[in-house]
Write a structure and sequence with these properties.
single chain; 633 residues; mainly beta; Maltoporin, Chain A; 22-stranded antiparallel barrel; five-stranded mixed beta sheet; 34 strands
């Protein structure tokens, strides 16, 4: 602990992490390298209308488009694990997170998330992404190629987003064509374990009409036998600017993933395969005037799952195959209005209808076993008030939501916060917020531990934070202290001799997060972040210590970046005997721009060759190397 503290002090004097710089979406000219945090950064996730970062009481991390491009990662999640303090996402291999038993991609913020992830809400352009039956997101669905930027709310956001936003929100904001004309990009990457990623994108705009589209293919043999992964994904977004004040968008995002689970090293699995299709389509109409702004958003999420549970060596194949189809239909309406100077009042309405069908399919269809065929609805209204006063130095924020679940009835969710700006370079924040999560259809009605009498999980979050810029805004610092207390957590318990989900769990987490960014020179920047999590009740795959340090240097046509991540005291198992892991990872990347339209890149991960596990029994690959080519038109 002392060594970590000394290292942290050194980093605060010389380094950086959490950047929120200019967006680079692939269709704009290269800009001067400057990714330091701006206190007047415009945010769309922490509050429905756009608002400056300094006026929001909650903690928000922003990952820019250029950071995403530089990282050369097909999936967004490894980048978020590094760059966002307090956020951790589990992995099990070189590519692919998988589903069901042995899956990775578990997301937690400050220890809140669950397994599978139902306590962190993933959004694409503000639309919820969780599955209708299972109630959790699918990690393999979130690709870098469609993403313009990512905003992460660290802490409950249930006032605006309801259930599942108990631990926080990850909002993936997709690209759009900014200028008249067209652009195109293609990229191919190949590396260790016969891993291949290929993707192409195009954009077009003429006056009011604009379009972007992406298609990608990824595959890998995996670093263990029976760990194959293959995925196709595509995204299309069409926008039409109705007038200067009104805009509309239609989009479709779809992916098909085939993955194999090899089982633990001590109990290998054969033919444990999954074929998953996920999709979301939406229609949004937005308005923005001097004193009012808002939107109407309609969305439809759908998916199918076909899973072979496989068998262990020496065992017999199971005759049945798990099949499911699920969907979620929703509408979100909000409007913000400024009634007087410094005021922003937002009223909103949400409706969701979700469910689906699941069954075990046998060779003889007459023996099929139905697991679920149901749907539920959820309806909510909320009001959020923001008032700036004292010459724009003090901003007060208060919100209330009434959320009504078809089975569990009404739930009140309050939030109260303040932001104080004593100078142009200093911001102090405080917030008290409630988070909650309704039980999923899986927990209530599917599989043997089901319990239809489950109640919502609830927690309260208390937080204070400081944001500071120095050295003519080249150095940015952030410190957050938080305390989380919750009960009614859903956990598995033996009741009358059988496993049953019950509301018996508790959570009590406290800790702090530190972030810094330093633009040493126009072509040289450093970043660092550290989070400490003290859990009264231990939680799987939530690290006690998480540290990331990185640097990025550009000279001529070359760009070189590297990062080191330390994960300390992460529980991989809690029963029968608790087991912890600690490990240090070093990654590096190099880009060379041979021509304006042609570039080459290479990257190495876990270059120290560390042996470690995040999911118990699933050793991660040692050093891996990848290289590729990128063409821009």
């Amino acid at each position: 602990m002392c060594k970590i503290a000394l290292l942290l002090c050194y980093l605060l004097l010389s380094a950086s992490p959490l950047t929120a710089g200019k967006i680079h979406s692939g269709n704009e000219p290269d800009e001067e390298l400057n990714d330091t945090v701006r206190l007047d950064e415009v945010i769309v996730t922490g509050t429905m209308p756009k608002v400056n970062l300094r006026n929001l009481p909650m903690s928000i991390s922003v990952i820019s488009g250029r950071q995403i491009d530089e990282r050369i990662q097909p999936s967004l999640l490894p980048l978020l694990t590094e760059e966002v303090p307090g956020l951790f996402i589990t992995q099990r291999g070189v590519m692919g997170y998988g589903v069901a038993n042995g899956a990775a991609g578990g997301m937690s913020i400050r220890g809140i998330g669950g397994a599978p992830t139902t306590g962190v809400l993933v959004l694409i352009d503000g639309h919820p992404q969780y599955m209708g039956l299972m109630g959790h997101p699918l990690a393999d669905s979130y690709q870098s190629m469609i993403t313009e930027r990512v905003e992460v709310v660290r802490g409950p956001a249930s006032v605006l987003y309801g259930s599942n936003a108990m631990g926080g929100v990850i909002n993936i904001i997709t690209k759009k064509q900014q200028r008249d004309g067209s652009h195109g990009m293609a990229q191919v990457m190949y590396g260790s374990y016969n891993t291949l990623n290929a993707e192409a994108s195009a954009g077009w705009k003429k006056e009011r009409l604009h379009f972007v589209g992406n298609i990608g293919y990824s595959r890998s043999d995996g670093h263990r036998e029976n760990m194959d992964f293959k995925q196709w994904n595509g995204h299309a977004k069409v926008g039409y600017d109705i007038s200067r004040h009104w805009k509309s968008f239609v989009d479709l995002n779809i992916s098909n993933t085939a993955s194999s689970n090899p089982g633990t090293v001590t109990a290998p699995m054969i033919d444990n395969d999954a074929d998953i299709t996920r999709g979301v389509t939406s229609l949004a109409v937005e308005n923005e005037y001097a004193n009012t702004s808002g939107a109407v958003k309609l969305f439809y999420n759908f998916g199918t799952h076909r899973i072979n549970d496989g068998y262990r060596e020496g065992g017999q194949p199971v005759p049945q195959r798990f099949n499911s189809s699920d969907q979620m239909t929703g509408v979100s309406v909000y409007q913000s209005y400024s009634f007087f100077a410094g005021n922003k009042t937002t009223a909103g309405f949400d409706y969701q209808h979700f469910g689906g069908e699941a069954f075990n399919k046998f060779p003889d269809a007459a023996n099929n076993e139905q697991l679920a065929d149901t749907s539920l609805y959820n309806i909510a209204g909320y009001l959020n008030l923001q008032q700036t006063m004292l010459d724009n130095k003090l901003t007060l924020n208060a919100g209330i939501r009434l959320d009504h679940h078809q089975v569990n009835g009404p739930e009140w969710i309050p939030q109260l916060g303040a932001s104080f700006t004593p100078s142009a370079t200093t911001v102090l924040k405080a917030i008290v917020s409630k988070g909650f999560r309704n039980p999923t259809i899986r927990e209530m009605y599917m599989f043997r531990p089901k319990n239809p009498d489950l109640k919502p999980e609830r927690l309260m979050n208390y937080e204070i934070s400081l944001m500071q810029t120095l050295l003519d805004h080249r150095l940015s610092l952030g410190v957050n202290l938080f305390y989380i207390k919750g009960d009614n957590m859903i956990q598995l318990a033996m009741t009358d001799g059988r496993p049953l989900y019950v509301n018996s769990g508790e959570v009590e987490n406290k800790g702090f997060e530190v972030s810094a960014s330093y633009q040493a020179m126009p072509n040289l920047r450093f970043s660092a972040n550290y989070s400490y999590l003290d859990m009264t009740y231990k939680i799987l795959t939530a690290p006690e210590h998480k540290l990331y340090v990185s640097g990025n240097y550009t000279i001529g046509r070359w760009n070189i970046s590297s990062g080191v991540q330390y994960i300390g005291n992460i529980h991989t198992t809690l029963t029968p005997e608790p087991q912890q892991e600690s490990f240090l990872l070093w990654n590096a990347r190099i880009n060379f721009k041979a021509l304006r339209w042609l570039g080459f890149f290479a990257k190495g991960e876990n270059l120290l060759g560390r042996k470690y596990e995040i999911n118990a029994g699933y050793p991660m690959p040692e050093a891996t190397i990848f290289g590729g080519i990128r063409i821009k038109i």
